[in-house]
Amino acid sequence: MTIQGTGWKHDLLLALCATLVVLAINAVSGFPTIADLGEDNDSMLRLVEVRDLLAGQGWFDLHQYRMGLTGGFVMHWSRLVDAPIALIILAFQTLGAGTAAAERAAQIIWPLFLFGLTIFVILRASRRFAGTDVAMPSLVLATAALFFLGIFSPGTLDHHNIQLLLTAASLWLLMEAPSWRPAAPLSGLCAGLTLAVGMETAPYVAALGACAAVLFILDEKERMTARGFGIGFAATASLVLVATIPPAAWGVAQCDAFSTFQFVIAALSGFGLAAIAGLPGQSAARARLVSMSALALVVAAVAILFFPQCLAAPYAGIDERVRTYWLNDVVEAQPFLSVAVNQPKLMAARYVTPFIAILLIGLQLRSRRLRREEALAAVLLVAAFVVSLWQVRGSTFSVAFAVLPLSTWVAGIRLQASAARSWRVSSRIAAAWLVSLNTTWAGVAVAAQSVVQKAPTGVNSDADHALTCSKAADFSELAAMPATTVLASSNLGSAIVMFTGHRALAGPYHRNVGGNLAMLDAFMGMPDAARAVVEREHVGLIAICRGNSEEMSLAAEAPAGLAARLLKRDVPDWLELDSSTADKPVEIYKVR
């Protein structure tokens, strides 16, 4: 059996239909996620990066010059995501579209293109997982899950959507490997690319590599799978190093972005896996286990000896004040307990369906041994669920992977119903559909919360995270003023650099430590201390967004600080409110 012989055209057509439905929904509603990007700071800054690239900033130059202290700071994102977005914009400009229209086209086409491909990949993986036709349940559940995750909405240029696509594709291709020879190296290629895009997928890449190795240990027939995956993974890492890292930086290790550290580990593990799979005399499982164990020890030793700084917890070295007043309030970085207490709707939508999917796999294990494809999906699902307990961003992957066992479950009940129609079986079908939709659980959480108690009022609560001041019109007055450095809360930084020509001192990025600390010193300090920061950093304007959760939090922590005073309209004599912005979403104060 080959990939071409298992209904791939049918699945591609279904994925296209799902994409067109989502496009129509967004078009009818006026593309609301483009008109108001809300809290999606990363998509705003991604578009700024693409604009800078098209304006002539170097391919290897990842500085964001209009954010942070003088000179800016180096972002940790990959040009591999900037490039296709820039190409879409260039294509539309070549056809005669203006810059704004070309950017809008890219904001629509890029995420919806990734949405369609991800639906297609999940459909293919679901067929492999179930061993039968589960197209309709998989299509409905995948479309609902990805739509309400929000990472494929028009305007979403952040890298989480392409990471999900590449990780899911790597899993599906590993499933296909025994019957389609190119699948294994393509799986390794996808794993290498998703790692190059961002370090968030490192746990899933490690799980995929471990699966390829364990499959070979358990079955000598998986030799070509292990070899192909290893070559694809290591070769991709080598190409990414050359294509995205300047030669002068090849010796520099970056723990939060693809660099020599990730290249060395990927090349060593990938080529090592391929070499072991190609060695003669590996017919005994014990010999394969010894060889793979030795490789694992070598990779671990290299990481410990040469890159010990990258073995610490992410953000371990971040300034404590930045951690307290920014990182601890980043929604996607919250652990399960924080989400469960402060955001029950998010918890229900992101954790319940993956948990049910894991239970279904566990129940299956009680009756029989998992097939190869089921075991692969189970490993990735459990890995993503564990990551989500640490940081809610992992649930993006677990919700998508949960579609495989859930669609198989629904399809099984539908087959029972077709064989013996009764109201009991029909009720089971309805219940299975409802239980498998994450939106059902989000609705249950909202209903239960409204009955039992009022919504939480913490900074991370569902009610508090409707970020204001995220439309272009909110910054129109600011955009009309001569360019200068603007002091504002960090979660306004991306909007300032996107909608205006100003520099933003603060921005919600862990590498912008200096700019964020300067913002905290100014907004939480007494007026004289704040003025010293303003003069030192050559700030010309201060922007205040009333109702902004970050500003309210800083005002609560420092009631005598500058932010608190400005929110109470107690303006120091060295500041002057621009009267045209009074009572507007963004109030602007000029430094005298």
Produce a short descriptive summary.
The protein is mostly helical. It is 63% helix and 4% strand. Helix 3 (41-54) crosses helix 4 and helix 15 (344-367) runs antiparallel to helix 16 (372-390).
Query: What is the tally of helical segments?
Result: 26
Could you say which overall geometry the principal axes of the C-alpha atoms support? Answer: globular
**pLDDT under 50 segments (min length 5)?**
1-5, 455-466
Structural class call reads: mainly alpha
Largest sheet: 5 strands, mixed
Explain this structure.
With 592 residues, this protein is mostly helical. Among the domains are: 148 residues; 137 residues, no CATH class; 120 residues, Rossmann fold (3-Layer(aba) Sandwich), CATH 3.40.50. It contains 26 helices and seven strands. A five-stranded mixed sheet has the order 4-3-5-7-6. Strands 1-2 form a two-stranded antiparallel sheet. A hairpin with an 8-residue loop joins strand 1 and strand 2. Helix 5 packs across helix 18. The radius of gyration is 25 Å and the shape is globular. The termini are far apart.
Task: Reconstruct the topology from this structure.
Layout: H1 8-28, H2 32-35, H3 41-54, E1 63-64, E2 73-74, H4 79-94, H5 99-130, H6 135-149, H7 160-176, H8 183-197, H9 202-218, H10 223-244, H11 260-278, H12 285-306, H13 320-325, H14 336-342, H15 344-367, H16 372-390, H17 395-401, H18 403-419, H19 423-436, H20 438-452, H21 476-479, E3 485-487, H22 493-499, E4 503-504, H23 513-524, H24 527-536, E5 539-545, H25 549-557, H26 562-567, E6 575-577, E7 586-591
Parallel strand pairs: 3-4, 3-5
Antiparallel strand pairs: 1-2, 5-7, 6-7
Helix pairs in contact: 1-5, 1-6, 3-4, 3-22, 4-5, 5-6, 5-7, 5-18, 6-18, 7-8, 7-9, 7-17, 8-9, 8-10, 9-10, 9-12, 9-16, 10-11, 11-12, 14-15, 15-16, 15-17, 15-18, 15-20, 16-17, 18-19, 23-24
